[in-house]
Amino acid sequence: MTTWVIGDLHGCCHEFDELLETIDFVPGRDHLWITGDLVNRGPQSLETLRRVYELREHASVVLGNHDLHLLAVAFGHGRLKPSDTLMDILEAPDRETLLEWLRCQPLMVESLTHQCVMTHAGLPPQWSLERARQYAREGEEMLSSRQFLEFLPHMYGNEPARFEPALRGNDRLRAIINVFTRMRFIDEHGTLDFSAKEGLDSAPEGFSPWFCFERGDTRRLIFGHWAALEGRAPGARANVRSLDGGCVWGGVLMAMNLETDQVVTVEARSRP
């Protein structure tokens, strides 16, 4: 069995299908990891979500911020933005099946065999792997629970900008989910900046990419989320692999073989 990790799909279903063909992916023989943001901004959000759902027994998916945005809008606690491409999902006859599956996906996936962890945005150096597992479970339990609808109005917000173990309730859950799905730049204490979303030169004063801080372990961290990095992590002081090649922005869709580290890409079919 070969395990392939694929970066953010963002509704680029044609490129996803082409990439699966290029890597000769065979369900039942091989397994997929996907770094989240399955939907939005691209032209085939519904087709992409359906395709991943069809492969669900052969794929491990983590939730990204755009996936959570879809859930918020679908359940009445978010607004569509002009750039969103989610209406086909919201009007689909199988929306309930797709959305219920999506909200039960994890925030973190780990493989002891490959000694690696996958999240959408990354892991801050202040979190040990043991703590990251605990915090991921807390967020996952809420998102998949009956209390999900009660929590949704409180999920969004930039405060608290730094996770503290003493946080409780909605503030704690919001901070956990923000780290797993929105983190880019942080300061030395783990405070998140939510304003800068471009390349490394857009870092606010006192902030650096989360992967430029040393960690207390050597586990490889696989992430997407940050298209401006174009699948790179310059200046990394942690063992990381960035896989968002910005396909939806005219870049590439990336896949990495976890056994060999081979990287395969397909070009975007269109450019914005």
From TrEMBL:
InterPro entries: ApaH (IPR004617), Calcineurin-like_PHP (IPR004843), Metallo-depent_PP-like (IPR029052)
Pfam families associated with the record: Metallophos (PF00149)
Signal peptide: none
Molecular function via GO: bis(5'-nucleosyl)-tetraphosphatase (symmetrical) activity
Keywords annotated in UniProt: Hydrolase
Record EC number: 3.6.1.41
Calcineurin-like phosphoesterase domain span: 1-155
Record field: catalytic activity: P(1),P(4)-bis(5'-adenosyl) tetraphosphate + H2O = 2 ADP + 2 H(+)
Family recorded in the similarity comment: Belongs to the Ap4A hydrolase family.
Chain's role: Hydrolyzes diadenosine 5',5'''-P1,P4-tetraphosphate to yield ADP.
Protein name as catalogued: bis(5'-nucleosyl)-tetraphosphatase (symmetrical)
Organism: Kushneria phyllosphaerae
Gene behind the chain: apaH
